[in-house]
Design a protein that fits this description.
With 187 residues, the chain is an alpha/beta fold. It is built from 6 helices and 7 strands, in the order αββαβαβαββαβα.
Length: 187
Amino acid sequence: MVEYISMVPRSLNLKNDIVFNKNLRGFDIIFHSTWGLFCPRAVDEGTELLINNVNVQSFEYTLDIGCGYGAIGLVIAKLSPEGMVHLVDKDYIAVEYAKKNAKINKVNNYEIYLSNGFSSVPNIQFDNIVSNVPAKTGKELYWILMDDTKNYLKKNGKLYFVYISGLKEFFKRCFREKFGNYTSVAS
């Protein structure tokens, strides 16, 4: 009985937003997150690697696929204040937290909405498409993303994917087959 009573306050605290600050590309950003979202207590290494190596112009349009609570897309929106960033995720909770984080951090040049990959993305040609690719969704999803990416990327647009090292050879083959080439920006 004593053990049960001591657990009640802890479980109630787990329902509160997880809040943390992170400086990314010179911007101090406050993130709200929750349990069940990817890496809820901190920006993970892969996401930070992508953020630190993406090269965007101030006027560009970018699509963030699988945005989670918005770390990548919101930093890109701050880097491209005259452009627009679309942040999409198939998880309703992720979309709600990305919207919350955009408001808290006074980001205005965004659209955030539910989309399973490109399923709800409007017919727009993007300058950049970015994603911290989920590690365990299956190669079928990666092929679908590659096919759709080619249709939504401008002729000289850039695709930035970060993925676990175990998928390195697979993505090299994908990039060569779908785009003819690729450049490894960082690892």
